[in-house]
Amino acid sequence: MSTAPQAIDIDQEKGNFQMPEEHTFDAGVGLSEGVIDYISDVKNEDQWIRDFRKKALKTFNAKALPTHWASKDLEAIDFDKIRYYLASGQKPKRSWDDVPDDIKETFDRLGIPENERKFLAGVEAQFDSEAAYSNIKEAVGKQGVIFMGSTEGLKKHPEIFRKWFGKVIPTGDNKFSALNSATFSGGSFIYIPPGVKVSHPLQAYFRINAENFGQFERTLIIADEGSEVTYMEGCTAPKFDTATLHSAVVELVALKGAKIEYITVQNWSANVFNLVTKRAIAEEEATVKWIDCNIGSRLTMKYPGVILKGRKARGEVLSIALANDGQHQDTGAKMIHAADETTSNIIAKSISVGEGRSTYRGMVHMPKHLKGCKNNTECDALLINKNSRTDTYPAITVRGNKNSVQHEASVSKVSAEQIFYMQQRGLTEGEAMSLSVNGFVNDLTRQFPMEYSVELKRLIDMEMEGSVG
Amino acid sequence: MPTRKNEEWRFANINSFTLDGYDFVLPEKAIGSQELAEKSDVISNPSGQIIFADNKPILQDVDNDLKTKGVIWEPLSEALKHHSDILKDYFMAQNLHLGSEKFAALHSAFISDGYLLYVPKGLVIDRPFIANHWAVSDKAAIFPHTLVIAEESSTVTLIDTFNAKLPTQENFICAFSHFLAGANATINHRAFQNWGTKTLGIHINAATTGKDATVNSLGVNLGCQHLRSEHQSLLQGDGSHIEMLSLCVANNDQELDQRTLQSHRAAHTTSNLLYKNALMDKSKTIFSGLIKVAEEAQQTDAYQTNRNLLLSTTAEANALPGLEIKADDVKCSHGATTGQIDEDQLFYMLARGIDPHKARELLVFGFFEEIISKIGDNELADYIRELIQTKFQHM
Hints:
The complex is a heterodimer of chains A (about 475) and B (about 400). With about 475 residues, chain A is α/β, with parallel strands linked by helices. Chain A has 12 helices and 24 strands.
């Protein structure tokens, strides 16, 4: 059975190139207070941030790896061999012409400037630890929208930043959020003023170029009352022989009536540990929607969550995971209901190919004294080959009045009859398989922005090629 | 002691777990057997009956015809003398996977008696066997043990009842039941747990199936302050089938914690689980179920459903329905729902003049009927309805 189709390799090649390393700033190998001081000095940070980082480092060291429930593969991360800060400069450029040639070439090859011209309201491009480029369209900027790297955001808008920073995801939430809190650098800072609806998406692109490196971006998005924003992130890294770590913290705040849509297409190379904490707070009548596609990485552990804090708030997670040989996509969702009449919806679809393993973990929590809350969870898994694996581990707690929860999961394989039927009509086995799998995720991808659903369909086509056995 | 950090004990309130104050060594004393025997009259004409008071057999009876055909139905204390060859191979011989390994060890250390049911090859027995376990002394620690071996192509039904002499009695119960179904054999097991309301109960169940064998189990759980019930089914033989049904009514500040495993280890195996809980007052239930399908268990069909009905705004239902699938040619699904009584249904009944309390009760019975109707024994079905009814009268 051929489980490593050529086509996919071609596509991962798109991100598989490395520019020579020329870092002006390098914190060296390993993690210590000295590294924290180095990062704080380089960034010329206020004392409170330095203290915040050092406290987080203590928390990180005190916490054990969560291997009592998570994959033992986490033990393969050697925290002493990772480089925690690498940057060429502190100030992102406003024009692609000012971006150093090798970095510019990187993003050119990934098609970022081209997309920016076509359909984006703003772009930030992060290269290792710092943003190399950051710009928003003039018209959007005039509406009062702030979109910049978090390093810049901390300096220019501390009054907004500090109010929400670490409030959605506390340092001690888990070992990796503590690690991020100690070493964070880069990521996006976005503020949308009341009533402003940003019609085109804002996009951030995260690129790891250096080997043995850890990227710890920190993103904070605040959508003020009645505003709307769509944020998209993409990520790639070259294939190295050694493990690379990506551990982000993403905090979203949707104030009264605001809408945030957060789209991730994760296509890290298969040596990246992708251990990310993502959570949102939704105030009264606010909506937060996470669209999460995980295709790359060696091990992804990511469970986007929404704390439904205000009455009638709504949280949604739409998740697609594709696990191929050597990959473990451990993804899911958390919905914490904390106000009356809040609703949440989780739809997760996973496809396991070859020896790939996909896992769904979910948490739905409805405490007492709440009325009229609803959750719907559906997770479906598709197994393609004999050695593919899938797991589902939801945890649901319900109390209160007129609350209802339904959870459903199914596991299946593409039926032999379906394939046979399509082959009868002249499709090859690979085409038939790809059509079936696209059918499996179709009702979900239809809800994605056009560009992403097309891209996803193409990726699935390639992954399915030659996977039939 | 386990901690909540252990995934197998997630959501459980382990702080209330203490073995202090229980009597592990019980005095030899005569117990009013006549009274208990009358209360143990659950079904007519059983194939055999044993009544235990504080784990000491006080009455035993078996159909002589079955005895001559080779059926063994005796307390462990006697079976040890006559059938140590069987016990040697099977007694506590099952690895456990659901978190109570420590309590199983405690059970092995303190077990004083229990029973063995052995059904020889090819024998099909219609009438059920029944074992009545009574907790008589307050504060007594009791270790009931059940070992059922059904040889090739045999069929047997067994009922276990667990009761306290006084409804508010405080005991520590650590029970272990083990079912082995040989090739093509069928074991039907029904367990009715109604220990005293201050009791800490741990019930560990393990079933293993041979080729084309079937084990059907039904549990009704009403008693205990804190119940931990584990039920692991290992489908070892090709083509074997397991059915697991459970029905719980929790009230006051009861905690009923149920963990299950459907482990498919052979091809063409099927399993079906349906656990239904009704919760009142400040009670709490935990359902944690796992379907595990091994690589070699192709063509598996496995289903798992948990339904929770919240009858008060302060009750708490936790559901952890899990799947771990390593084979690709399988049909597996699980579902968990938690909700309240349907307002439209209630309105319809009220509009027909049915008193609200009665209407709610009827709807709860409707909720349970899906399970009760699967028993296929009217006498037993009525007994279950009566048990539930009694609990609702204290609502």
